[in-house]
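Please fill in the sequence for the structure shown.

STRUCTURE ENCODING:
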């Protein structure tokens, strides 16, 4: 069917239905959401871990035709959710061609479009908006002005057109009017100065804006959505109480509740599908990378108010793959398989994303990151092994065995070296590795076993990645007791004094 290009053609098309002509954007979001719910379609594709928590609250807000705010720490997909709201808009929407505020062909609100329709009638040219064209986003900063958001009177327009300053034809529209018949999002709302937040009152309550001191009123049709970090209320600013009162729903986001959810997000967001060699990321590597973030969120040395962004495991995984890719390219290997050593090599992607408390600052970001990696290795190791089942490997080191696992060495070379560790090859089946698997896979699994034993302090490892005999824990001093059960110090004779 030919897309209407004039107002007359539009009136003769299916879009002439009264419901579509008068429907406001919040009703449009609601109706399209209802259709998705009835068809059991995904409401926010690509948003993982919010199905039972955040998404139901967002659905309620849209069904209620509310303006809403997302509250959450950094890296909790707030901006992504707001941008996904365009999926609830119509595939295309008509507007009067050339209009800066995307006026409705049936009920134009700006002076230019009203004059144009009155003059040209059914020949008024029509253009169409895609959903992405109807989404306007602004990052709130302290230097944002009312003119940026609402608009201003342009004296140059007035002089060139011979208009009075109070005329609607002299208006230079801000971002909010340009979002008319769409969605306007403000990220980090507390950073917006209080006097600028006041400028949002009218559009949220009465549905119009006033520009300067002139009687220019625009009854805009817009859905307002916001995001904010709760900690920013006191750190950089706050949302003024009257504005909070006008926001219909407050939805709190959160970090992934389980490691598996985190792995799914990291796999979806990280850039690992690269042109080059085949990539195989072992499950235990993904689990370790994800657990680093989980451990960091619980660590007392890390500022919980700042949070540990989900970008940490995403960036870390990309660095892990890059280090493994570099090794494969240097050694001419056809398969890229990350090892635990590659996680340590990815520390630059970890340290910059941690806000440390005083204790952490004293210890140093690198040392804190190493502790997190080691803790994550130990927890992941416990999912696959009991340390008691690996006693044969521990004994090999206790009897003087020593081996250097070079993270840059070719897999074939390291595979031959690791075969010398008694009992190690038999234990790789627990992580799904078989004897016929590629050397890259076997070496990665073997190193995971050694790193797990080191994390549990059963074997030792130097900074040069030389695995050796572990340090035995000091045995508690035995004490003697007299006939009444009181503790007696060891006799002087036993201490070598006669």
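FILLED IN BY: designer on duty
SEQUENCE:
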């Amino acid at each position: 069917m030919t897309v209407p290009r004039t107002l007359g053609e539009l009136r003769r098309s299916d879009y002439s239905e009264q419901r579509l002509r008068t429907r406001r954007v919040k009703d449009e979001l609601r109706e399209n959401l209802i259709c998705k719910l009835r068809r059991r379609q995904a409401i926010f594709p690509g948003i993982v871990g919010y199905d039972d928590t955040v998404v139901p609250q967002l659905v309620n807000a849209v069904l209620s035709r509310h303006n809403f705010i997302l509250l959450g720490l950094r890296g909790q997909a707030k901006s992504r959710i707001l941008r996904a709201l365009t999926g609830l808009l119509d595939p295309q929407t008509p507007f009067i061609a050339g209009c800066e505020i995307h006026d409705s062909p049936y009920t134009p609100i700006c002076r230019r479009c009203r004059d144009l329709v009155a003059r040209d009638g059914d020949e008024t040219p029509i253009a169409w908006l895609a959903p992405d064209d109807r989404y306007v986003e602004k990052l709130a900063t302290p230097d944002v002005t009312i003119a940026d958001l609402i608009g201003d009177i342009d004296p140059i327009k007035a002089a060139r057109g011979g208009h009075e300053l109070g005329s609607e034809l002299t208006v230079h529209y801000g971002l909010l009017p340009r979002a008319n018949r769409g969605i306007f999002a403000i990220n980090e709302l507390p950073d917006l100065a209080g006097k600028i937040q006041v400028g949002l009152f009218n559009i949220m309550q009465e549905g119009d804006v006033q520009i300067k001191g002139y009687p220019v009123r625009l009854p805009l049709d817009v859905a307002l959505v916001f995001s904010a970090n709760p900690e920013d209320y006191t750190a950089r600013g706050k949302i003024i109480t009257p504005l909070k009162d006008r926001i219909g729903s407050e939805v709190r986001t959160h970090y992934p509740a389980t490691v598996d959810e985190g792995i799914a997000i990291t796999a979806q967001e990280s850039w690992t599908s690269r042109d080059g060699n085949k990539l195989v990321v072992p499950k235990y590597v993904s689990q370790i990378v994800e657990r680093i973030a989980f451990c960091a969120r619980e660590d007392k040395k890390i500022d919980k108010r700042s949070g540990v962004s989900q970008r940490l495991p995403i960036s870390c995984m990309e660095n892990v793959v890059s280090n493994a890719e570099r090794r494969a390219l240097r050694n001419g290997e056809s398969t890229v398989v990350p090892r635990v050593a590659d996680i340590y090599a990815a520390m630059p992607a970890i340290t910059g994303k941690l806000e440390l408390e005083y204790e952490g600052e004293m210890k140093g970001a690198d040392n804190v990151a190493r502790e997190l990696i080691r803790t994550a290795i130990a927890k992941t190791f416990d999912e696959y092994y009991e340390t008691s089942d690996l006693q044969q490997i521990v004994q090999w080191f206790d009897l003087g065995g020593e081996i250097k696992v070079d993270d840059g060495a070719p897999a074939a070379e390291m595979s031959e070296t690791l075969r010398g560790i008694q009992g190690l090859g038999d234990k790789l089946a627990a992580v799904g590795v078989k004897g016929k698997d590629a050397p890259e896979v076997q070496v990665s699994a073997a190193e995971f076993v050694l790193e797990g034993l080191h994390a549990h302090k059963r074997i030792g490892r130097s900074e040069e990645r030389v695995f050796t005999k572990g340090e035995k824990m000091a045995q508690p001093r035995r004490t003697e007791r007299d006939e009444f059960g009181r503790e007696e110090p060891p006799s002087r004779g036993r201490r070598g004094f006669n």
